[in-house]
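Researcher: I'd like a candidate sequence for this fold, 139 residues long. If you have to choose between options at a position, lean toward the conservative one.
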């Protein structure tokens, strides 16, 4: 449970069911608070494909369009653009500082590193989202 004095300053970040849904040690639904809620939201936005939700067809990111793209500089740039587009639209509680991509061609994986600040709060946070492409390098 967060510190009550600390929480009063960050109420705008929200409280709600943890995502993915899980049980707490008492057998009830696990809740997440503040910074954790924002991290879960970023994960959910990047994980959801645009058009996937029936009643919110514009929600999510376009990352799924790159699922079988070659791992090259153009694809890495496109990943960064899609992440910035999605987070600027769907996560109003953050200010993006930087979105970087760290490619691992052997595994066919790209770590998407999102550095951000919470609005009205000076600390910088970092979120790493693993994304998988083809396992070969193409220039």
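Model: Candidate sequence:
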């Amino acid at each position: 449970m967060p510190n009550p004095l600390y929480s009063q300053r960050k109420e705008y970040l929200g409280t709600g069911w943890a995502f993915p849904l899980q049980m707490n040690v008492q057998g009830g639904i696990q809740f997440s608070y503040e910074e954790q809620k924002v991290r879960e939201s970023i994960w959910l936005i990047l994980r959801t494909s645009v058009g996937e939700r029936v009643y919110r067809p514009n929600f999510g990111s376009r990352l799924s369009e790159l699922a079988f793209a070659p791992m090259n500089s153009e694809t890495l740039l496109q990943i960064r653009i899609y992440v910035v587009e999605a987070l600027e639209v769907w996560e109003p509680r953050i200010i993006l500082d930087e979105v970087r991509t760290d490619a691992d061609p052997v595994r066919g994986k790209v770590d998407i590193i999102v550095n951000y600040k919470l609005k009205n709060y000076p600390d910088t946070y970092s979120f790493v989202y693993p994304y998988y492409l083809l396992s070969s390098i193409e220039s």
